[in-house]
């Protein structure tokens, strides 16, 4: 297992992983990462200051990814854990925790004060992981990510 920053050649693989995972969990295509324009060009999206996206490779095959960037449409020094998705065969192996810790460390290096995320209410394993590392449930969204179909919002302060 290898964690590395995204390359242009990874765009199709990570888009397919994100969209397949959203379908698998019965989430809507509209108001989620499925329909984000960023999902179509992940490498290009994460070339902005204070943002990065990582992929996990196993035997040279991309099996998942996650990123960190400034929280859209929010007035404050808050980052967002973005587009953390994995192929089914990559789940339950500790990759998610390693990926999340990598993203949290990067958010700290970028000098953010906290990190926010949005998820689906039926993504129980992911929510358990988020809570395990210290994320707390919020009463509503911060900023405006456009992910109005994601009913669960969480925040971790550094």
Describe this structure in words.
This protein has 158 residues and is of the alpha+beta class. The chain has one domain: Aminopeptidase, CATH 3.40.630.30. Helices cover 29% and strands 28% of the residues. It is built from 5 helices and 7 strands, in the order βαααβββαβαββ. The protein has a 7-stranded mixed beta sheet. Strand 3 and strand 4 form a beta hairpin.
Number of domains: 1
CATH class identity: Alpha Beta
Form type: globular
Structural class: alpha+beta
Write the H/E string, N to C.
Answer: EHHHEEEHEHEE
* Fraction of helical residues: 25-40%
As an assembly, this protein is: single chain
Strand content: 25-35%
CATH fold-type name? Aminopeptidase
Feature tags:
158 residues; Aminopeptidase; alpha+beta; 7 strands; seven-stranded mixed β-sheet
Write the layout of secondary structure elements.
Elements: E1 2-5, H1 11-24, H2 37-40, H3 42-45, E2 52-58, E3 61-70, E4 78-86, H4 95-109, E5 114-119, H5 124-132, E6 136-137, E7 152-157
Parallel strand pairs: 4-5
Antiparallel strand pairs: 1-2, 2-3, 3-4, 5-7, 6-7
What is shown here, in short?
The chain is α+β, with helices and mostly antiparallel strands. It contains 5 helices and 7 strands; from the N terminus they run βαααβββαβαββ. It has helices spanning 11-24, 37-40, 42-45, 95-109, 124-132; strands spanning 2-5, 52-58, 61-70, 78-86, 114-119, 136-137, 152-157.
């Amino acid at each position: 297992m290898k964690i590395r920053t995204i390359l242009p050649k990874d765009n199709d693989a990570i888009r397919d992983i994100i969209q397949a995972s959203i379908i698998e969990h019965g989430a809507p295509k509209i108001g989620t990462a499925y329909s984000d324009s960023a999902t179509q060009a992940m490498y290009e999206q994460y070339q902005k200051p204070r943002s990065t996206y990582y992929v996990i490779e196993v035997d040279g095959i991309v099996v998942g990814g996650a990123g960190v960037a400034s929280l859209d449409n929010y007035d404050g020094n808050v980052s967002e854990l973005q587009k953390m998705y994995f192929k089914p065969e990559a789940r339950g192996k500790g990759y998610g925790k390693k990926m999340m810790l990598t993203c949290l460390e990067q958010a700290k290096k970028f000098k953010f004060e906290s990190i926010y995320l949005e998820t689906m209410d039926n993504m129980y394993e992911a929510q358990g992981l988020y809570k395990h590392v210290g994320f707390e449930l919020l009463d509503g969204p911060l900023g405006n990510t456009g992910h109005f179909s994601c009913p669960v919002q969480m925040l971790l302060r550094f």
